[in-house]
Amino acid sequence: MIILANTTDIHINGPSAVAIGKFDGVHKGHQMLLEQVIKYKETGYQAVAFTFDPSPAVFFSGGKEKVLLTRDEKREWLESMGIDVLIEYPMNRNTADILPENFIKEVLAERLHTKVLVAGEDISYGKKGAGDLSLLQSLSKEFGYEVNVIEKLRYDEKIISSTLIRDSVLEGNMEYVGRLLGTPYSLRGVVSHGSNKGTGFHMPTANLIPSEDKLLPPFGVYFSKVRVDDCEYAAITNIGMKPTVSDKPVVGVETFLYNYSGDLYGKKIEVYLLQFLRPEQKFETVELLIRQLEQDKRKGQEYHFGGRY
Q1: What's the Cα-to-Cα distance from 109 to each of 55, 86, 139, rounded to whole Å?
Q2: Whole-structure pTM value
Q3: How much of the chain is helix, strand and coil, in % rounded to 5?
Q4: Cβ atoms within 10 Å of 122's Cβ, excluding its own
Q5: pLDDT digits (tens, 9 = 90+) for 232-269
Q6: Fewest CB within 10 A of the end CB: N or C in the chain?
Q7: Cα distance between residue 217 and residue 262, in whole Å
């Protein structure tokens, strides 16, 4: 997959099918939109995902936003789906002020050679977000592209959106999040050396330091699974700051893998959060913590193996 980032000097040779969106989370609605773009590869078009970086909401608010997918995670997701070109178009004062008609003419038609634009009903672009679906459709013949409109996907009578997923993550409702995404919510990273206290508790863990911009669910313990070296393992994961054994304000992700033997240090793993078990808490003694960890481990056995382990 070709990535065009940090530049407005973007050009694509040959015709393209383009999807415009934020694609935070790449949820089921996003997947449906992107799959339509990818289908046009059969006709010789390049499949293009067009995003703004930062997103308009972040740019105009001047703040920072926790994301469902980090930049690297999003890139990996889109590449795995079959996107040929990812455009991370810089959002700044100049690009924010482009007139919607000029965005269609100069960016979509002249630079991307767009022949098919796949868009949601609420698409917006151009100065003050004034560009909409109606304008795209009205200029389609003039600039030689067709518009493929994708209706909003619903689940449980609610429109699937990044906002709905983000709110559900913050509530710790990971089962619901998994249904909206089509896959469990996950955290990726390279296993680093921790305090090694888990080994003393007879629960050696794989330790990750999450990206600062990654949206995390409430601190606590989760039933999980881990993908490493193209294999999956049942697991149980703690997200938090380990208040019983540490006074450092560092958020970590610690995962105990059932049925795994070997050295994970330095390996890239993906931790899928399946279900919330209990909130993180500070125990009066390490002995009470160890007792609770054994209970967590047994509950994980019941969840994954029906008690057999």
Answers
A1: 22, 17, 10
A2: 0.90
A3: 35, 30, 35
A4: 10
A5: 999 999 999 876 666 677 899 999 999 998 889 999 99
A6: C
A7: 29
